[in-house]
Design goal:
alpha/beta, seven-stranded parallel β-sheet, 13 helices, 9% strand
């Protein structure tokens, strides 16, 4: 019986591998618009697709990001400034893309831009902290998508949304997981809406990787900044050792969990863009496959127990 089940599993993965091999043709006529190309996944994806022959439109938040991409990529690469929080900036880039792609339309948009701070327990934050992150991680995704959706429908192309395993389970406080849950919901409703038009909507749910999102220096600075702003009453609730223990977790566990091989994610992005039969969801990273996603399917009492057992004890319990 065991060998029979094992054989079925092997057959399934072999069949899926063969089925997913074919790629789209005529890459040189297909335009791909990527946000957040200054560093990390977006930067590496832009370079990778450029080498494969796609017409890449790489948007960066900084001039430095644009300049570095122009120096390292072919003349087919187009770079542009983009602030996903600004309707004017989003509209300006969309107008440029419309002029560039013409009647061919836009083959794909990859919503990769995102931030991970401010992040902390919810009672450390203000509503402005929530708004600032949602404006980038969620509203920015929606704004960019809607700005070029007619062009994608025209090409019967793809929308690729970069969410996170924290769009499937909340393991930390603050707006990050909220924004990623929102991306997942937007991805699902858009996928259903666009199916009659021949547009594929795909979601990337990475685990921990070494990018600015998991940069220990950025995260540590964020925690210190939030702690310094807290009223003394809230600090007393958490205890004098809470800050130091938080910094130790960031420098130890986050650093060890984060995978340095960004191509694991970029390969999923490339497959979503170029495969004739892309997957609906991709979950790159062994931590995503073996821990976070299985944990998300468990009853809340089980996942809560596991997560709270790993949490830093607070000084003052209200129970």
């Amino acid at each position: 019986m065991f060998l029979y089940i094992l054989g079925l599993v092997v057959f399934y993965y072999l069949y899926r591998w063969v089925r997913e091999l074919p790629r789209v043709s005529d890459k040189g006529s297909k335009y791909v618009y990527i946000t957040g190309c200054d560093s990390g996944f977006g930067n590496l994806l832009a370079r990778h697709l450029d080498k494969l022959g796609f017409r890449v439109i790489a948007s960066c938040f900084t001039e430095k990001g644009e300049e570095e991409l122009r120096k390292s990529c072919s003349s087919n690469m187009t770079t542009t400034h983009l602030d996903v929080r600004s309707a004017e900036s989003v509209g300006k880039v969309a107008a440029m893309i419309k002029d560039k792609v013409g009647q061919r339309g836009l083959w794909a948009v990859v919503n990769n831009a995102g931030v991970s701070v401010p992040t902390g327990p919810c009672d450390w934050l203000t509503i402005e902290d929530f708004k600032s992150m949602l404006d980038v991680n969620l509203n920015g995704v929606i704004a960019v998508t809607l700005s070029v959706l007619p062009l994608i429908k025209q090409a019967k192309g793809r929308v690729v949304n970069v969410a996170s395993v924290f769009g499937r389970i909340s393991a930390t406080g603050g707006p990050y997981t909220i924004s990623k849950y929102g991306v997942e919901a937007f991805n699902d409703c858009l996928r259903l809406n666009m199916e009659p038009f021949g547009v594929k909507v795909l979601c990337i749910e990475p685990g921990f990787f070494k990018t600015n999102v998991t940069d220990t220096a950025i995260l540590s600075k964020n925690v210190k900044s939030l702690w310094d702003k807290l009223p003394q009453e809230v600090r007393d609730d958490y205890g004098p050792d809470y800050l130091q223990k938080s910094l130790e977790i960031i420098s130890d566990k986050v650093a060890k969990l984060s995978d340095a091989d960004l191509m694991k994610v970029v390969s999923c992005m490339e497959h979503a863009i170029s495969a004739i039969r892309p997957r609906t969801r991709y979950s790159p990273g062994w931590d995503a496959k073996l821990f976070w996603l299985p944990l998300s399917y468990m009853p809340s009492c089980v996942s809560d127990y596991i997560l709270t057992k790993q949490a830093i004890p607070i000084h003052r319990s209200m129970q």
